[in-house]
Amino acid sequence: MNRSKRRTGRRHPLATVALLALGLVFTGGAYAALNSTTAAQAEAEPTSQETIDEGKKLFQANCATCHGLEAQGTGNGPSLIGVGAASVDFQVGTGRMPMQMQGPQAQQKPPQFTDEQVKQLAYYVASLGPGPDIPADHLVNGGGDAANGAELFRINCAMCHNVAGAGGALTEGKFAPPLTDVSGVHIYEAMVTGPQNMPVFNDLNITPEDKRDIITYLQYIQDNRSPGGFELGSLGPVAEGLFIWIFGLGAIVAITVWITAKSN
Amino acid sequence: MAQDDHSGTELAAADSSHAAQEFAGSTGTAVIPQDAFTNPGFEPHRPRVTDEDPKRQKRAQRTVYTLFYLSVLGSVWAIAAYMLFPIESNDVGAVRLNNMFVGLGIALALLGIGFGAVHWGKSLMTSAEAIDIRHPIGSSQATQQGAVEVLREADEESGFSRRTVIRNSLIAALLAVPLPAVVLFRGLAPQDQLPVELLSHTMWAQGTRLALDPSGVPIKASDVTIGSAFHVIPEGLNDLEHGRLEEKAKAAVLLMRLDPSELNEQPDRASWSYDGIVAYSKICTHVGCPVALYEQHTHHLLCPCHQSQFDVANHCEVIFGPAKRPLPQLPIAVDDEGYLIAQSDFTEPVGPSFWERN
């Protein structure tokens, strides 16, 4: 009975496996297709409701612990209502958020989200209240007046970030990070939003064109390194003093030992 | 040299025998510590390899003259490099190449002479040990007496002690000689103004608008959002024909806006701010560095030179570092058109202390 049924059965023994495989391929393909449509829509229409919804999901899964389910803020993190897309794009795009641990200031680390997810988070937070937007490409790609940018940088930025953008120490463990290898869009967003303890430089203080000039200056000193030779980190007297103490005095001590040693 | 050497050994020998006698004289059970330093004399002479091996001597000789010829090469190269890598105007890179290659040539020239001479001295010149005894510093008794005699005679013959009128007039003339220098150096400061007065006042006056550095565009109160830091100069500073930098050095101001609830103001100075906007002198009260490292959440201002810290929320009182006084506050208000203006000049001198400052 059993035997005959197997022989005359409608289904091949491997049919279940084949069906399962087919089903998986179809579901995966459909998901991929749907996913890429979402991405394409996000690129094309940043403030679409779909982007904001995706961002909200990401936010509630990754950020709500400290910032609250509605981004209203808790004892561990500030309210994000009205900080704008630029702030989220800077904090998450440079890896400062999600924060590794509480400390004097959020440390930079490899970004935890893809560019697309960062944008979704940014537009979700931007939908909660008006705030500075992610700057347009022509403002962050350089191409401005490097000399004007250098003057503005010396007046507004160099006291903390060092005249060569090498960064510097602040109080109680805080520091101004180096600006080398920071993308133009992140520099622009930092000026507009004032992350951590950095003051805000709004568009009435430093106009968008002036901000473009500052970015141009920073890119210029990246491309045209110091004509004086070794930079030693561009840190000034500390690095240079240490160098001359170790190598300059070391050479003098070595020569003195050689001069006074008896020849064999 | 040989004589010196001879006398030196004799003297060393005399010293050691003297010390030996001193210790021989002490008797009894007292324990005499033998810690007096005795002259150990010379180490046994050890011939160098160049003294014994003619081949090594030849090699050392070669090394020395090679170093001297390298020095010649370095000098010639420095001249050539000066012409090969000319300093073009408007090209910083050319300055760098010129400096580097000329410098390398001169370094080779000087180091070649130095190392060659030392190597010559160490490996080829005679290696016999010798002592040169330092001659006594004081002159002989007779010479000293002679000098006193000369002075006494000069005084007697010139009448310096006797003719007091002439002597005093000479002293007066010598005292007066440096006086023109004092007046000339005073002339380096502004002639028609008292320096104390200049240090006590800045360009700020009642109604002067606060303007952006460097453009000089006046600032509206509404421009200054919370958390902002503006670097400020008095309006009209850029139009000054003379002394623009001097005025800027005194009048530079940092403008910040805090959440008004975070500002702890003294009642008598409550009217000096506007809706959380405060303006403070940027010149450190320690030695006058520009204090502008502002932290918008802690409201700390840090001076980069000596790490003085000021608390903006508490009238910039000193919370760390060598500064002794808070940063002077500029009283501000808003005019009819919404622009920020100064109520008056700073109420105390800005910057570091000076003698006449109270």
Along the chain, the helix and strand elements of chain A come as HHHHHHHHHEEHHH
Q: Which structural category fits the helices and strands of chain B?
A: alpha+beta
The amount of beta strand of chain B, in percent, is: 5-15%
The overall pLDDT of chain A, averaged over residues, is 85
Secondary-structure content class of chain A: mainly alpha
Quick one: biggest sheet of chain B?
4 strands, antiparallel
- Uncertain regions of chain B: pLDDT < 50 for 5+ in a row? 1-17
Oligomer class = heterodimer
> What is the succession of H and E elements of chain B?
HHHHHHHHEEHEEEEEEEE
How many helical elements of chain A? Answer: 12
How would you sum up the global shape of chain B?
extended
Q: How would a textbook summarize the main sheet of chain A?
A: 2 strands, antiparallel
Helix residue percentage of chain B: 40-55%
Helix content of chain A: 55-70%
Q: How would the global form of chain A be characterised?
A: extended
How large, in whole angstroms, is the Cα Rg of chain A?
28 Å
Spatial sequence of strands, sheet with the most strands of chain A: 1-2
C-alpha termini separation of chain A: 108 Å
> What share of residues are in beta strands of chain A?
under 5%
How many DSSP-defined strands of chain B? 10
**Cα gyration radius of chain B (Å):** 38 Å
What would you say about this model in short?
The complex is a heterodimer of chains A (264) and B (358). Chain A has twelve helices and two strands, in the order H-H-H-H-H-H-H-H-H-E-E-H-H-H.
Task: Provide structural commentary.
The complex is a heterodimer of chains A (264) and B (358). Chain A is mostly helical. Chain A has helices at residues 2-8, 15-44, 49-62, 64-67, 84-93, 115-128, 137-140, 146-156, 158-161, 184-193, 208-223, 237-260, and strands at residues 168-169, 175-176. Helix content of chain A is 56%, strand content 2%. Chain B contains nine helices and ten strands. With 358 residues, chain B is α+β, with helices and mostly antiparallel strands. Classes of the chains: A mainly alpha (264), B alpha+beta (358). The interface between A and B is large, with 30 and 41 residues.
